[in-house]
Amino acid sequence: MSEAEILSAPLVLEYPFKRTVGPVQSAFLTGLREGMVLGVRAEDGRVLCPPVEYDPVTSAELTELVELPATGRVTTWSWEPAPRAGQPLDHPFAWALVQIDGADTGLLHALDAGSPDEVTTGMRVRVRWNDEREGAITDIACFEPAGDEEGGQ
Amino acid sequence: MRDVAVVAFAQSHHVRREQARNEVEMVMPVLHQVKTELGIDQSQIDFTCSGSTDYLAGSAFSFVMTLDGVGASPPISESHVEMDAAWALYEAWVKIQTGAADTALVYGYGKSSPGALRDVLSRQLDPYYLGPLWPDSVALAALQARACLDGGVTTVEEMAEIAARSRRAAADNPFAQLQGSDDPAVLLKEAEIAAPLRRHDCPPITDGAAAIVLAAGDRARELTDAPAWIRGIDHRIEAHSLGVRDLTTSPSTALAAARSGVADAPVELAELHAPFTHQEVIVRTALGLGGDVTVNPSGGPLAANPLIAGGLIRIGEAARRVSSGEAGRAVAHATSGPCLQQNLVCVLEGERGH
Amino acid sequence: MSDLVLPEALRGVEPVRSIRTPARLEYTFTAGQATSRFLRGISRKKILGERCGVCGKVILPPRGSCPNDGVPTSEQVELPDRGIVTTFCVVNVKFSGSAMELPYVCATVVPDGSDMGLFGMVQEIPFDQIRMGMRVEAVWVDDDDLTHDLASIKWWRPTGEPDADYESYREHV
């Protein structure tokens, strides 16, 4: 049988998932909706942002929420020259792990920087909020360069 | 512990798009090849274990369809993992250790061509904080590469050398998808596709399959003159969230290496499942391999990277070279998940006294 | 309950309880060799099974291997578009995407000479008169509407022949 005789057909799969959130996730996402960034304190004293329900080392239930500023610094980044469907921005941007000021871990999001020449590891960034927020990670539209205008650590 | 060996290995001719065959038609030839090589049929296989992933196949419980290529009548003892088939091999090894089986057929397959692999792989991520952003697999690997470059773990020159070395080695591998390479200096003139990654730093997208037969002790010696004995095997997983990990190291690989006894004797050859160039440096370091160890003589995942089968192929390639006498002691490594999240290490040796 | 203490600013507001995370993935599937052969037959109103060289059974619809023996099937066997209802069910629940009027009957129909059945609907008879062993024939769509799709068989309808004896098809139930 030649390749030309092989049949093919399109298939689209859609998963309309609705997921229940845990108490820590709920607090974080409610915070985002209200324009606030929250972390959670782990048993070893580190502040995790985004916060998780259980300690990544000891698996203990975590309960101490920490209010954080909407600023941070880039710990590593890559450049997305051709954004794909569903990604935060429709023009080229950087993916970045952002360590929010006061947190000890990184949050992955888009960084709207214009060009890869404008991005450096360690650069300061701040949250650009979506105007309409519903309680989701996408309430953060992206991060944007913050220059040296705010303190940090 | 029972002595368990790889006694047969087969893989498909890896291609970007396997247009003419569906999954079972792609997998069946490698299943037949390992059994024919050993002169056995399915009735002499005590346990069958496969790896595949439904999101790639686009249907639920898709592995059941591929079982049509195994022959499940009378009913067989069977299991399945939704990850690289190296983990299916681990399950089969455990099954043999329990004494419930003396032989096992392990196989894995990945047909990435029907869908968009970068989108499909984004569905393995945390659905609360990561999934809604649709970060793709190359972008995440690029974050890791940047951390490695910033941290002095590797250089773009070393990454290009790994790419060139791998694809040149693949020229001798008739199953490889990409064979041969420009000089590293030429590769570095190419534009970045997901800075800091260039095209040569990324694995090809591959359709392919592989199968291995394991056997215990004397049964292995009956089946082949040259069993490749598994002297140690272990796998470990790290936290899912990239932001809590140090992406420049692989503590899970290091721990799996320690528990499988990699350092107990010199290693001559390593087949490493490091799909992106910078990951080879991380894995090599975590395994504690010296500069004298031959790495990925098959070309490795940079020359052909069928999802799910890629890790199992590393074990097969290492075993093949141990069986042929090319190496007395070899290490195989497999990975699954984003940025080397989970890692499996397997130490293989030929018959002692060889 | 968690003893989580919310920041003051969040205490009076409605908490987020769930998120929607829709995912859409697009594929283009290849049918492979055996299924392509079968579906090309369907588009010509032919039901083509494939015989296993080991057990001799006729596999339908063929996917490239004998599920019993794990070997490729290659001998094509043209089957008549009539056979036996080996089992059926009456559907009383509306499934999304289905325009069928309730209740309707889904059945496994084993064409004469086949060892496996096709899934389809039985029509042109009241649903409560359908029975195991009933002889049926395919009702194809108009020639202009034939496609590489089992939907080319609109449904199966009774032929009026006497029912098959259970012993004659018990292996195929």
Report on this structure:
Chain A is mainly beta and 153 residues long. Chain A has one helix spanning 23-33; strands at residues 8-20, 37-41, 47-48, 65-68, 71-80, 93-100, 106-111, 124-129, 140-145. In chain A, strands 7-6-5-8-9 form a 5-stranded antiparallel beta sheet, with no helix packed on it. A 3-stranded antiparallel beta sheet of chain A has the order 3-2-4, with helices on one face. In chain A, a hairpin with a 5-residue loop joins strand 6 (93-100) and strand 7. The N and C termini of chain A lie far apart (67 Å). The mean pLDDT of chain A is 94. Chain B has 354 residues and is an alpha/beta fold. Chain B has 2 domains: 4-116 and 205-227, 3-Layer(aba) Sandwich (Peroxisomal Thiolase, Chain A, domain 1), CATH 3.40.47; 134-202 and 229-348, Thiolase/Chalcone synthase (Peroxisomal Thiolase, Chain A, domain 1). Chain B is built from 12 helices and 12 strands. Chain B has helices at residues 23-38, 54-57, 63-66, 85-97, 117-122, 137-150, 156-169, 184-187, 217-223, 251-259, 277-287, 310-323, and strands at 4-11, 47-51, 78-81, 103-111, 192-194, 197-198, 207-216, 228-237, 269-271, 294-295, 329-336, 342-349. In chain B, the strands form 2 sheets. Chain B has a 10-stranded mixed beta sheet with strand order 3-2-4-7-1-8-12-11-9-10, with helices on both faces. In chain B, helix 7 (156-169) packs across helix 11 (277-287) and helix 10 packs across helix 11. The longest helix of chain B is centred in the N-terminal third of the chain and has 16 residues, at 23-38. By secondary structure, chain C is mainly beta. In chain C, the strands form 2 sheets. Chain C has a 5-stranded antiparallel beta sheet with strand order 7-6-5-8-9, with no helix packed on it.
Number of helices of chain A: 1
- Secondary structure class of chain A reads mainly beta
* CATH domain topology of the largest domain in chain B: Peroxisomal Thiolase, Chain A, domain 1
Number of strands of chain A: 9
Largest interface: A-B, 43 and 37 residues
The low-pLDDT segments of chain A are: none
Helix content of chain A: under 10%
Number of domains of chain B: 2
Output the CATH class name of the largest domain in chain B: Alpha Beta
